[in-house]
Amino acid sequence: MSWSDSVPVHMAPILLADISLNWTPGDIVAIGGSDTNHKYAKGGSIEFAAWKAILLFIGAGAIGTYFFSKEKERLRKQREMEQNRSVGKPLIGGPFSLVDTEGNKFTHENLKDENGKRFSIIYFGFSHCPDVCPEELDKLGEMLTELKKDNIEMQPIFITCDPARDTPEVIKTYLEDFHPDLVGLTGSYDQVKNCCKQYRVYFSTPPNVRPDQDYLVDHSIFFYVMDPEGNFVDVIGREANVKEGVEKIRKAADAFMPESERQKKQQSWLGFLYK
Predict the structure, then answer these.
(1) What is the pLDDT, as a whole number, of residue 61?
(2) Which residues does Cu cation bind (predicted)?
(3) What's residue 52's pLDDT?
(4) Residue 219 assigned as binding residue
(5) Residue 133 counted as an annotated binding residue
(6) 124 plus 241 within the same structural domain
(7) Is 129 assigned a ligand-binding role in the annotation?
């Protein structure tokens, strides 16, 4: 049956007229032609844009979660450091005034670094110490070498517990056998006693001895780690090896945040983490 047979004769002219009046070349496109492809391409673009937005959203969320977790972990370490600032009570560290091996004044203010990067590590000993002090200073030298690989700036300090014999000149000569960055400090008996008191360092010399006599000084054996703001953050005992000592200082360096930066973050949208 033809098309003309399926359409009543009296309606054929009307249908033909309608087709001829409304038809344009672009209205009839073969299946699979450009018009069909255009529609599918348009739909595909929308789908691609939607997936792109979803992936960007997921990526941004993952990055945000990573930095949030990292900041939270750093704050946890910082709180641990703050808790370590006191071994019992009162706090370790405080005002002192001594002189270095060149005769220059050195105080607690010299522990501070205006760039907020340099940590200090303090050891109390004496130049006539036969074994313990040399061993600990050698260990300190190894720790400093390892920390330098991590670009952790350190100011190593040796403070004498025997000011009667340890003059600036004597300490300077003594420290030549150890790490070149070591800063040697001494002072009057009262000045040294005050400094030891600030750091809760015990030391004792035999009674009624003269500087020209051979005697030993009993003293505490610890390294005191101070942050760039001059605050005590941790202690390293004699039983700790080089690796353990380095790890403690790395931990302190990772957790450190200058007070000015901390205040800014407290005022930011992450402020609730710092409370």
Answers:
(1) 66
(2) 129, 133, 219
(3) 73
(4) yes
(5) yes
(6) yes
(7) yes
